[in-house]
User: Which sequence fits this backbone?
């Protein structure tokens, strides 16, 4: 697609100036809305910190959702198939992630394994409950602020 702009006439500048001004103001408003820190530009290190915090919060949110799923299964009668599927889903989430959340991932993975074992009758319910409570405690301790 090609655009040809000819500026031979004086009237072309009359309509081009408001369009350019509108675009400039629009881009400035968009930049202000999308800048996370508000009034200042981010340095490269600040941008990396911001990205790490967002990844941290996102992974923590996923781990908390996994714990809620496990708690819901623990409140029901033992169902080995559902427990196995939930454990596989949780273990997929806990396979890798932020290094800062390694202990939280391990705790949630252990809770998923204990819940799976409880559902098939390999361990007592109290052991699965204790592992889940430990995971909840560790996740509650992991706050960024």
Assistant:
């Amino acid at each position: 697609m090609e655009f040809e702009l000819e500026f031979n006439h004086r009237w072309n500048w009359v309509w081009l100036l408001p369009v350019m001004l509108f675009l400039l103001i629009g881009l400035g408003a968009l930049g202000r809305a999308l800048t996370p820190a508000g009034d200042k530009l981010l340095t490269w290190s600040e941008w990396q910190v911001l990205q790490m915090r967002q990844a941290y919060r996102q992974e923590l949110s996923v781990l908390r959702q996994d714990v809620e799923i496990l708690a819901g299964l623990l409140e029901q009668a033992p169902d080995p198939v559902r427990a196995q599927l939930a454990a596989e889903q949780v273990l997929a989430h806990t396979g890798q992630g932020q290094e800062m959340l390694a202990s939280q991932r391990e705790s949630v993975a252990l809770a998923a394994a204990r819940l799976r074992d409880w559902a098939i009758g390999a361990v007592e319910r109290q052991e699965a409950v204790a592992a889940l409570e430990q995971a909840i405690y560790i996740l509650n301790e992991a706050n960024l602020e």
User: Anything to note?
Assistant: The chain has five helices and no strands. Residues 46-141 form one domain. The chain has a mean pLDDT of 87.
